[in-house]
Design brief:
heterodimer; A: 168 residues; alpha+beta; Gyrase A, domain 2; 2 domains; 6-stranded antiparallel beta sheet; globular; B: 90 residues; mainly beta; Folate-binding fold; 4-stranded antiparallel beta sheet; two-stranded antiparallel ribbon; 1 helix; 37% strand; sarcosine oxidase activity (chain B)
C-alpha cells in the first residue's frame, strides 16, 4: 500500500471522456524487458509460451523485435532472473505508463499522430511505433480498445495530444 | 510518406519510424594498427556519394530496433530492396 501513497502519476487519474472515445490511465503494471537471441531460450527460463513473430502477443508477452519482448502483468509475481543463462530480464515497470483508449473513435484518435494504418491492425497485435515525435508501444487489446505504453516524461504531452484530438 | 520494408518485421512501415545510418558494407579493418593514416582516414571518413543506386544502412529505430541494409536510388528516393544485416551485398 505504500506504493499508493508515493505514486505520482504524470497524467490525470480522471478519465477523459469525449464523443466516441475515452482516455484513461491504466492501473499500475509490472513490466519486464525480455532479451534473448531466441524465444526458446526465454521459454526455458520463464516456463511460458513466448511469441515468435514480431508483433504477436501471447499471455501478456509482446514480441517487439527479433530479440526483444515486453512482458506486462498486473500481478506482483516473482520473476526468474535467468542468472548464468543467455537471457536478460529487466524490471522496467516505472519507465512507462499505460494510457487506455477505448471507444469506436479510439483508432481515429491514435491515427491523428501515428502513421500506422490502425484500421488494418489486428486485435492482439503489438508494436513499437511513433506518435508525432514520441515513441510509443501500441497494443490492440480489443476491436475498440488500445493500450498505449509511453515513457513517463512524454506522458503529459501525449495526454494533451490525445485529449485535444479526442475533443475535435 | 515513403513506406520502407523492414526485413525483420517483414512488412512495409512508415518512413518516420526509421533512421538512416550512412553507407552500408563499410568493413572495419581487422588490424587497425597496421593501417596507414591514409587508409584509416579512408575507412573513417571517406564515403561514396553516388547519383543513383546507393547501399545504405537503416535502422527501424521506432519499431523492432534493428539495423538492416537497403538499396536506395538517391535521385528518385525509391527503395529498390532491403535485406538483413550480414547478408551479402545486393
Amino acid at each position: 500500500m505504500s506504493d499508493a501513497l508515493f505514486r505520482n502519476e504524470p497524467v490525470s487519474s480522471t478519465p477523459y471522456v469525449a464523443d466516441g472515445v475515452s482516455i484513461r490511465l491504466a492501473a499500475p503494471l509490472k513490466r519486464y524487458s525480455l532479451r534473448a537471441r531466441t524465444a526458446d531460450a526465454l521459454e526455458t527460463v520463464l516456463n511460458v509460451k513466448v511469441p515468435q513473430k514480431i508483433g504477436a502477443t501471447e499471455g501478456g508477452i509482446a514480441c517487439l523485435g527479433p530479440d526483444e519482448w515486453l512482458l506486462r502483468t498486473p500481478a506482483e509475481a516473482a520473476m526468474p532472473t535467468g542468472t548464468g543463462l543467455p537471457v536478460a530480464i529487466t524490471d522496467i515497470s516505472e519507465r512507462s505508463i499505460c494510457l487506455v483508449l477505448e471507444g469506436p473513435r479510439a483508432a481515429e484518435v491514435l491515427m491523428t499522430g501515428c502513421p500506422l494504418d490502425l484500421d488494418n491492425f489486428a486485435v492482439g497485435r503489438a508494436t513499437r511505433t511513433i506518435y508525432e515525435t514520441v515513441e510509443i508501444i501500441i497494443i490492440r487489446e480489443g476491436e475498440d480498445r488500445f493500450h498505449v505504453e509511453v515513457w513517463r516524461s512524454f506522458a503529459a504531452w501525449l495526454w494533451t495530444a490525445f485529449t485535444t484530438a479526442a475533443s475535435h | 510518406m515513403i513506406l520502407i520494408h523492414c526485413p525483420y518485421c517483414d512488412e512495409k512501415r512508415p518512413e518516420i519510424e526509421f533512421a538512416n545510418a550512412g553507407q552500408a558494407h563499410v568493413a572495419r579493418p581487422l588490424d587497425p594498427s597496421s593501417q596507414s593514416d591514409e587508409e584509416w582516414e579512408a575507412y573513417l571518413f571517406i564515403r561514396a556519394n553516388p547519383r543513383g543506386r546507393h547501399h545504405e544502412r537503416w535502422r527501424h529505430v521506432h519499431g523492432c530496433g534493428r539495423f538492416f541494409n537497403a538499396v536506395r536510388d538517391t535521385v528518385t528516393d525509391k527503395f529498390e530492396t532491403t535485406y538483413k544485416a550480414g547478408e551479402p551485398r545486393r
